[in-house]
Amino acid sequence: MVTKHSSCISSFNALIVQSLINLFSIVILETRHFLSWLEIGLAQKVPANFVFGDSLVDAGQELGYKDFIPPYLAPTTVGSVVLKGVNYASGGGGILNYTGKIFGGRINLDAQLDNFANTRQYIISSIGAPAATNLFKSSLFSVTMGSNDFINNYLVPVLSTVEQKLVSPDAFVATMISRYRIQLTRLYSMGARKIVVTNVGPIGCIPYQRDVNPLAGESCASKPNQLAQLFNFRLKGLLTELNTNLGGSKFVYADVYHVVEDIVQNYISYGFGNANSACCFVAGRFGGLLPCGPTSKFCADRSKFVFWDPYHPTDAANVIITKRLINGDSNDISPVNIRQLIDS
Asked: d(Cα 50, Cα 340) in Å, to the nearest integer?
């Protein structure tokens, strides 16, 4: 039986994009990891799908999986089920271990990797080391992290004021990249070879950041987006470094920032009617001040909104993001797209 940290509460959200997704992290932006009703053919080529990230991470359906990848902490995630993949993602999780501490029982990336180590040992004991090595070599690993490290850490209103004065954006991002290098190298050392890493999306465009930065008016908040761009530049360099130094590795850079920015700027051409407000809202000019909950109001047609709540994209937006990551050109994902990675 797979060992689990029972003291942690699972809050996995099986939304698509898991927004590859940092594909949107707590925001679209970490899109998190993406996958939801598309090609059975692709799914048949992937023996297992292992997902790491925050609540935006999808669990495989866009690749053609019939069901969501099971969450690690679910009591039913045992036996042969784990041979098809496991979702380790957690709401509020980040690259840095103190990210999201205001949420209590979140599972950050280091702990998610600990959980995968448990699964790995279970698989080795079940099918043997040679077979396990081949399984991991052919499996798809997706990592969507980074957005929460800004939204629920460096940019938390009031609480982060002192940190922002003491730690420059460059220094904070350098700390993130340094930790991420260790984490991604550890994932490789445990057998992962095909690894999709999502960058941080335009977090300054989510309803929450629009509402807490009222001086931006109708525009996206500039500071959060500048931080995302700084991190993304360093992340792309990191993945190039890892591909060079780690033999046989295939780290893929999913540029969710580019994809989401395009959707927000050209939302009408994508069939949306609103690109700045939350469909599920409670308070705030853009519905971004309070989380979606029992007292929330809802838009008439969620398919016409880019954002579902203060932080996350709608399914309609996630489908667009996912398809571009699976089939897109080098402007969306590089050095290859997900389809090409799976076929490699």
From this structure: 18
Query: How many helices (H) does the chain have, and how many strands (E)?
Result: 11, 11
* Catalytically annotated residues: 55, 309, 312
What is the rounded distance in angstroms from the CA atom of residue 194 to the CA atom of residue 140? Answer: 5
Query: Is pLDDT at 246 greater than 80 in this prediction?
Result: yes
Residues in the chain: 344
Single-letter amino acid code for the residue at 340: Q
pLDDT in tens, 265-290: 999 999 999 999 999 999 999 999 99
Q: Which residues of 174-198 are buried (b: 16+ CB within 10 A; e: fewer)?
A: eebbebbeebbebbbebbbbbbbbb
- Which pTM was predicted? 0.86
Identity (one letter) of the amino acid at 255?
Answer: D
Cis peptide before 335 (omega within 30 of 0): yes
DSSP helix, strand, coil percent of the chain (3-state; round to 5): 45, 15, 40
From residue 194, alpha-carbon distances to 97, 156, 301 in Å are: 25, 34, 37
Mean pLDDT for the stretch of residues 96-103? 83
